[in-house]
Amino acid sequence: MTYEVKSLNEECGVFGIWGHPQAAQVTYFGLHSLQHRGQEGAGILTNDAGKLMRHRDTGLISEVFKNPADLEKLTGSAAIGHVRYATAGEASIDNIQPFWFKFHDTQFGLAHNGNLINAVTLRQELEEKGAIFSSSSDTEILAHLIRHSKQTDFMNKVKEALSSVKGGFAYLLMMEDKLIAALDPNGFRPLSIGKMANGAIVVSSETCAFEVVGAQWIRDVKPGEVVVIDDSGITYDTYTTDTQLAICSMEYIYFARPDSSIHGVNVHTARKRMGAQLAREFKHEADIVVGVPNSSLSAAMGFAEESGLPNEMGLIKNQYTQRTFIQPTQELREQGVRMKLSAVSGVVKGKRVVMIDDSIVRGTTSRRIVQLLKEAGATEVHVAIGSPALAYPCFYGIDIQTRKELIAANHTVEETRQIIGADSLTYLSIDGLIDSIGLETDAPNGGLCVAYFDGKYPTPLYDYEEEYRKSLDEKVSFY
Amino acid sequence: MTYEVKSLNEECGVFGIWGHPQAAQVTYFGLHSLQHRGQEGAGILTNDAGKLMRHRDTGLISEVFKNPADLEKLTGSAAIGHVRYATAGEASIDNIQPFWFKFHDTQFGLAHNGNLINAVTLRQELEEKGAIFSSSSDTEILAHLIRHSKQTDFMNKVKEALSSVKGGFAYLLMMEDKLIAALDPNGFRPLSIGKMANGAIVVSSETCAFEVVGAQWIRDVKPGEVVVIDDSGITYDTYTTDTQLAICSMEYIYFARPDSSIHGVNVHTARKRMGAQLAREFKHEADIVVGVPNSSLSAAMGFAEESGLPNEMGLIKNQYTQRTFIQPTQELREQGVRMKLSAVSGVVKGKRVVMIDDSIVRGTTSRRIVQLLKEAGATEVHVAIGSPALAYPCFYGIDIQTRKELIAANHTVEETRQIIGADSLTYLSIDGLIDSIGLETDAPNGGLCVAYFDGKYPTPLYDYEEEYRKSLDEKVSFY
Amino acid sequence: MTYEVKSLNEECGVFGIWGHPQAAQVTYFGLHSLQHRGQEGAGILTNDAGKLMRHRDTGLISEVFKNPADLEKLTGSAAIGHVRYATAGEASIDNIQPFWFKFHDTQFGLAHNGNLINAVTLRQELEEKGAIFSSSSDTEILAHLIRHSKQTDFMNKVKEALSSVKGGFAYLLMMEDKLIAALDPNGFRPLSIGKMANGAIVVSSETCAFEVVGAQWIRDVKPGEVVVIDDSGITYDTYTTDTQLAICSMEYIYFARPDSSIHGVNVHTARKRMGAQLAREFKHEADIVVGVPNSSLSAAMGFAEESGLPNEMGLIKNQYTQRTFIQPTQELREQGVRMKLSAVSGVVKGKRVVMIDDSIVRGTTSRRIVQLLKEAGATEVHVAIGSPALAYPCFYGIDIQTRKELIAANHTVEETRQIIGADSLTYLSIDGLIDSIGLETDAPNGGLCVAYFDGKYPTPLYDYEEEYRKSLDEKVSFY
Amino acid sequence: MTYEVKSLNEECGVFGIWGHPQAAQVTYFGLHSLQHRGQEGAGILTNDAGKLMRHRDTGLISEVFKNPADLEKLTGSAAIGHVRYATAGEASIDNIQPFWFKFHDTQFGLAHNGNLINAVTLRQELEEKGAIFSSSSDTEILAHLIRHSKQTDFMNKVKEALSSVKGGFAYLLMMEDKLIAALDPNGFRPLSIGKMANGAIVVSSETCAFEVVGAQWIRDVKPGEVVVIDDSGITYDTYTTDTQLAICSMEYIYFARPDSSIHGVNVHTARKRMGAQLAREFKHEADIVVGVPNSSLSAAMGFAEESGLPNEMGLIKNQYTQRTFIQPTQELREQGVRMKLSAVSGVVKGKRVVMIDDSIVRGTTSRRIVQLLKEAGATEVHVAIGSPALAYPCFYGIDIQTRKELIAANHTVEETRQIIGADSLTYLSIDGLIDSIGLETDAPNGGLCVAYFDGKYPTPLYDYEEEYRKSLDEKVSFY
Question: At which positions is Mg(2+) bound (chains A, B, C, D) (predicted)?
Fold first, then answer.
């Protein structure tokens, strides 16, 4: 049995703006700073005095908007944009957001970060009423729910639709006369509101976009909120009061950019604290600390400071490695030809190395890096992971939907250590993680979703329930 | 008077191989690891049992070789490759290397890293003999010199030609039956020889390519050497004995990859020592150390360890910023829209920051970063530079050919500090630099060329002499 | 007031196949022969044992399917394809056919040639029931009508939907288990059925595709028919009996390829007869006949034979003129720089020329060609048009939807002659046209729609009625 | 033994202009009208007050100059341009003209139509003097000859070089201060001079370019002439007096555009006369005349008029067939799928057809068309060829360099008739050809080169002599 090597992937980022004469351009720069949340497609939809227009395509934001004209044609003072992560096979342009729904009497745009867990059921119900879906994306469901709602007031149609969808979602809805932002009742996905110097309101999956576009953070959208932004300002409303914060802990561990802050906590600082806590939980002797670039450099800094060991650049990532690169043949790979990551023998030779990584998914990458370091002369390689062991799938917007992909779902720590060839393996404890992030909240697990580590999901699983139950009984042997 | 904002640029990288069934593929991966030395063009020329073939184009190596077929058509067991840095306007494909010279009875390929200083004179002499040049590149001169040589033995023609050209050069010459590597009498540019597990010999501008292709380092080519590699092995010969090592110190400071070693010294380690020495020379109080990503991270590590201050990720570089990116308009830039670098206010707010950078060219970038850090809340920004002040041009292969581009050529340290808006400005001393690199040699300046800092060039300047003398009298006021 | 220069444009061509192992490839070649019916977009949807797949894009069929892989990935033994004509601004890929509708329990594809005249009304009714349209194309309406139909049997849903749409249409509907072809009650658009040697059934807008794919013509689809093609063969059914043949006469005059036959009449032969009839109606003296390439060459042959005048190549069309060509600036155009058409002075100098063209829309092109011929030395230019004067818009699938575009709607023949600068101007009579085509039928106007010439439309105009009535009162002065 | 299907190919077209503010644009339109002379590459070199600049690439002129900016950047009031025909494998951009030679003190551009027959000898001699060629093209030789000339006056260098090269050539040489045009001593290739309304002088391979750019023909360049065009006007000079007109008869038969005139004879008119003469030499009964589109339509007109038979459109060429088109697989081809040419059964069914074609090279195409016509129902197909049988290669600029490609070199007329499956086969007689063209000259063969038909070459064959002699003894059996 063979497994595909997979890394963790976020499902999308959104950015919106209201009240800026160059709304498309600002959105472009905002999306650029969210590029790490999705590289398979991007789009921007603008609103020019009630007239919507859009440009979208597969690829990076810089590929989608190759020519200044692609942006310049998107006039208007309001916009929503989206960067998309897509699993292979769904790369059709039909699925690239923002979606744009046009009617004889109105139109609106829609962008979505997250994953619905009752999508199959809702879609079937809607199709039985005559609905035709133009994409395979969950996102389109909200539009059909709004159009089929029997409510008479438009905002009530929206609230009814938001109450029907379950799972993780951060929506941006561009109407002819307003921009609407909405978050799921658990706040699984981050969504923040900021303000530019000229008074324009911006909404973004991450606050790093605010630094880039020169905006000041106002506050994060809260679970169950629906926020209306129009020429009269910002109106905060709710579509449900049955809420409880459970923000995805993987945002802090891996996904979010280190310069973002989520619910008031800077991501780099949280990671450095995780590294420091990991150093306290680490029980071995070593000479130097080496972080796996780029995601684990903050944790490596924290580990080095707490442990007193020198932090060294023992692994180098080639900055020119792109998706379009020709890969070495199997034969060349066996001869040692590799491109993405090099171990620096001048640094690690003869040293006992603590290799810091943010997480282990399948173990394949960890095994390779351990091997690289040993070939470069490291005498011992102690793997220290800045998060607990990933053992359960996510249904709220991260692409780990099966336990088969997870080495920790099927192997003990000692088995894993042997598989990856390390001299020791240390995971951060769940409590250590929660303390390191340190949100100010009374919610369980410190306001975090840690279901990937303990299998306790904050909501029912709806359409996924049965498949998930079955997966718990599967035992998969790696390697 | 306006100045263009310029960063330092290396002029090219070369890679060669003899004796590998997939010579083109290995060269591709080798060049990929040298991509930082030139991004404007690339090419590979292979030798299949005496039949040469070539593919070259403008762009990154991954753009030049978009399709596997581009590589597969280059059969043969030997190859030379080149990545090219080019100033605007010379981006013609005619100038992209390797060059390929075909005759009715023979043919050869040629790749070059460096800059000749008597090129104008040589070209004029050759044209008066009827020579027609097909490019504006210095590199072609060597081929005409070889063809016009009156020597009868081919290697004597090559040696005569090598003795005629002056300046900095590392040449790779692919003949039908051998690969020739040659280095200038001062060894201004790095050039190393390695061996793969299957016995193939590789030659590269930097040893980082050896890690990538799985080769072991044998030794560096020495000043004045001409090395012949063919089926019988490696033969080391010299074309001159009037040599003296003066390797470009900027290779250690900025250009070379941290995982490369030059003349036995690992580049990351040298930089870390520069950072530590800089900490010893630094005279101010501060709270945290922040390196400018990515080139100054090693020096920041060394500074932090030596000073005991925490090393923090206070600046974030967007990894998706590409050459093709649409830039913010002036208007948006004034509104604070920026893309390449963000300061992390969650990290620097309220802190006295030591900002570590590798060098200052025009000062424009330093001024921007200082401003970014202050806007993000840093109370003080102390700029510490991991090299001495750049005040003189380079004629041996780095693109700083006029003093007008250099802030330190025209301003004192205190003036520069005011221009960039820092609270203090510290440069590493020349002696500190030489000691930090620490080559084992008896040559002056520890075997380094430090002419950019002290204006003492290791050779006569030939065609550049007059212009350089004039430039010393020019005084240019910045800002 | 300025007018855009417009030529006549057909709205689309369709091709379908059932029962061929290389259905996509055959469809590709079929569409290639229908390329003249639409150059703005193309697509193919195949059916592989109930699994549908599709490839579509803007551009010529050869641009849409650039790589053999684009075709090879479309497996299956049945297919429908479409070439699209689009007015500027609607070139979005969303509007390129075949459309593909996917449901949780079924899916189907749809391609359409023609124009609906009650589309606005139907779309509004459907949206009020919750329908969301994913394109601005009329074509999508049929799918929504089928899905909203209360009929229980699928074919009854289809027939109900076909009865609801009004105007000109030839539909191909690819179901999981059958291919359905349907024609409007007047048979405005051509649609023919053929059979390949291996038994595969093909359906095409024109029979020229049958020559190209090696198929034998069986018969044309009749007005009001719905034809089902599946593994058991062909079943002819009707959805209405209220039918009357009124095939678009412009198909014979201009659109269809000369090698096609429609309702049994070869197009080249019909045109040659129009040319001969035109010669009989022509009242002037002349020396030579020159047809405007390429569409008027058949009529010129007929005219020359009937009149006894020599047929000469007095106008040359540049075969390399493409849509992407850089056009001469206004300045160069005034200096006489032109690219598409040249007059041959060696042929026309000193001659009285009969210039044969198929039709006059705005007159701009005719005026230019007359001028070209005179500049090349023609002493007289007598313009003879192979059809009656175009004075009324078409609503059934040809892109002349406003009278403003038509010179004959606003000017007498004598005025037109003066505007185009001809020495005489002769149009073919309506009766001459009908006789030349010579369909075997009892229907009015010999089974032809000649509404462009006499303003008598075979159906009510529905959504277009009001606008059309108004346009009759507008008087527009050209030039 | 297999043979490649080959059609006749011209080797290149040239266009030059002096004294027009938009020289590049005019050259673009001029080259566009010469596109039929070469489709593999194109380029334009302009002269802006002594500063030369160039753009060239593979592909059609419309592909090479995709963006208006490609043209606009070529400023200056003088230009030379080239369209290139290339045999496979030589498609490198290095061989695309105009060539551009740059020296420390001067520079010039060069474009060439024709083929040298002593190129191998000259190149070897030059390389022994140290010359390095940058292309594999014959054209470059002239530049090296000029640079190695010991003459002191530049025009004398040029004349000496022109006297050294042998074969067919029409050169355009762009100097900093003048445009030079030169023709070989036999005038094998056409070259005409014209004048635009604004006084600009243009030079072109064919006069059709004059119609397109709005220029008046002045006169054709004569054998052995070297023409200098500069700001003072046109100066006609000669580099040799040993001249004799032998213009390539294939220019009249096949290559040149019908609207061009060569040495005063319009090409369409010449072809029509060939068709009429062919009708007189034709000895069979038939019902209709069908010309193979597009090159044989003129001859078909002449044949029809002379014979009194109706001229019919029995073969249709698909105007959208492009080089990039996906071709039918062998399997589909056997099922009758074809794309480029269709026979119109509605026209040819039951008819005895005279099929007019301009020439037969290998016979493969003729055999296919005969088969197409018979499958479409023609009862007899009489092939009548508007030129004598092609039996000998050309060395002066047409791509038939071996007798193996020519069916008439190895088969009698009767054998050929059987091979192509025709009911009769008639070639035009050599005298009939010469009379039909009817040049006013005393030169042998009416001033034409008819060596392809009788093997009598107007010059020694130099480097080709030996290979040609050998080929006369080879007998190759087709099919």
Answer: 295, 357-358
